Amino acid sequence: MDPRVLEAMLPYFGAKFGNAASRNHAFGWEAEQAVEKAREQIAKLIGATAKEIIFTSGATESNNLAIKGIAEMYKERGNHIITQATEHKAVLDTCKKLEKQGYRVTYLPPQADGLISLDELKDAIVTEGPNKTILVTIMYANNEIGVIQPIAEIGKICHEKGILFHTDAVQAVGKIPVDVQKDNIDILSLSGTRSTARRASAPSTFAAATPASRSPSRSTAEATSVVCAPAPSTSPASSDSAQPVRSA
Q1: Which end of the chain is least crowded, N or C, by CB within 10 Å?
Q2: How far apart (Å, rounded) are the C-alpha atoms in residues 57 and 191?
Q3: Which residues pair with 80 in a beta bridge?
């Protein structure tokens, strides 16, 4: 853990023990203020706004919430999802689960350099019929080989086709510049435990929604993003979400 993170969290291990969801007493108000401060800090880090941030229990849940949430919401439009074969298990297992429910999933193979082929991505996109592509989910930075995908270009391709783009950025945020607007990202997952926060902490992530103004071709309901990061309170505000297929 980064010493600065420890210093910021220490008060919430003792005197500041309030539940951020309890709004009828001073202890809860104090905890809520801390959570909102964290919300603003992480939003600024990734080019989002504080109101877009929703806390989840971890990056695995955020990936599940993004992928399964979009699949369910847009199943009337199509049933096709595109990902890559070298994604984290949290994404791959979620896609396998959706396949069992009738969704079609294309797993793009990596090239010799570990990157996906943008031409293969374009060829895999289905724009008409019942098997229309509704989501592309590609990891920002690989957790095993460290390769960084051309996220901005992938997002641009998706937006040109009116498709939502999700990225698991757990290994990227805090290490390299990440901006959901410049990178054309609709949905993003990240984890505080990979960017100097306390390890093995359950309430360590959050989700965010990107406003439709960043993607004029889509409605507000379509523009959602999921993000993960640490909250300074030991009791962050909770939110309803999909259950993860498996832990990261």
Answers
A1: N
A2: 10
A3: 104, 133
CATH classification at residue 106? 3.40.640.10
The domain of 44 spans: 3-8+37-222
Cα–chain-centroid distance for residue 70?
12
**Helix, strand and coil in the chain, % to nearest 5:** 35, 15, 50
Which residues share a beta bridge with 54?
207
Query: E strands within 1-151?
Result: 53-56, 80-84, 104-108, 133-137
Are 205 and 190 a contacting pair, CB within 8 Å? Answer: yes
**pLDDT tens profile 169-208:** 999 988 999 999 999 999 898 886 555 555 444 223 444 4
Q: How far apart are alpha carbons 188 and 236 in whole angstroms? A: 20
